[in-house]
Amino acid sequence: MGEFEAGTAAEVHPGVKKLADLREGLARVIRGKAEVIDLLCVGLLANGSVLMEDVPGVGKTTLAKALALSVDLTFRRVQFTPDLMPTDILGSSIYNPKDGSFEFRPGPIFCNVLLADEINRASPRTQSALLEAMSEAQATIEGQSRSLPRPFFVLATQNPVDFHGTYPLPEAQLDRFLIYLQLGYPDKDTEVSILFDQSERHPIDDIRPVLSTDELLDMQSKVKEVGVEESVAHYIVEIVQATRSDSRLQLGVSPRGSLMLFRAVQAAAFLDGRDFVTPSDVQSVAAAVLAHRVILTSKARYSHVTKSDVVDEIVSGISVPA
């Protein structure tokens, strides 16, 4: 994703300029992670959930919180632990002894942005409580379907699956996340800057909303109107189908993955201030959208090949449409 161009963006949507302010604000909180911030914004514009995985202490929760504070949305944070129950997320009916009635008390899922912190520390049963919400923006509680506020998306963080006390997310759960990303450690100079940035106060204390709910909903609607030529759509499908025949992959990308990639490239183009998609948009988000949807064969895992490596090689091996 390239640099923001004010003139071009203004023609696409007047609110796109605020996306530049959003990215700049996040960049002051998380130094040296411009690509990660762009992918997070792609998830926001496409109204898709984002999963961030990395070792503790690199800023996953801070980045998620900074994004939530940058948009005027209701925000809830749930710390996932082994004893967390589905009702702790969804809510439940409470008995009122005065009149013998039951009153529903909504859980933290009834918000615009749900931060599921360390999601893989909770049991699979609790993890699955988010499935319906992420797919259909509703939650079925005690047999009754309840709509969630618009927009609704999940920002989840998790520690690497080989850490003690973690439960790997099932494939069905992973497939609901639009974007998967890793922050990684900062380089030496960036880490020195971080020391001075936080010597007196944390930069997140200065975060203020730059987007209103209505502005975000309007932009999410406009993202769906971003033009995608048929040749680019064929390019997307070729990449996806190549994952299904690659010898290193036990499981390729499903049609849901094709739809997710289509949504993401529209958002990536909009973020760059364009109302049309180019093949470079596909290349910029392919690994983040597709890698977590595939499963490596045992041989590939023992060869220390990563899912992102495989997706990147597949993308580079397919002819780019003119």
Walk me through what this model shows.
With 322 residues, the protein is an alpha/beta fold. It has 2 domains: 15-223, P-loop containing nucleotide triphosphate hydrolases (Rossmann fold, 3-Layer(aba) Sandwich); 225-322, Orthogonal Bundle (Helicase, Ruva Protein, domain 3). It has helices at 6-12, 16-29, 34-45, 60-70, 86-90, 124-127, 131-136, 171-174, 188-197, 213-223, 230-245, 255-271, 279-290, 298-302, 307-316, and strands at 50-53, 75-79, 91-96, 101-106, 113-117, 138-141, 144-147, 153-158, 179-181, 249-251, 295-296. Strands 2-5-8-1-9 form a 5-stranded parallel beta sheet. The protein has a two-stranded antiparallel sheet with strand order 3-4. The radius of gyration is 20 Å and the shape is globular.
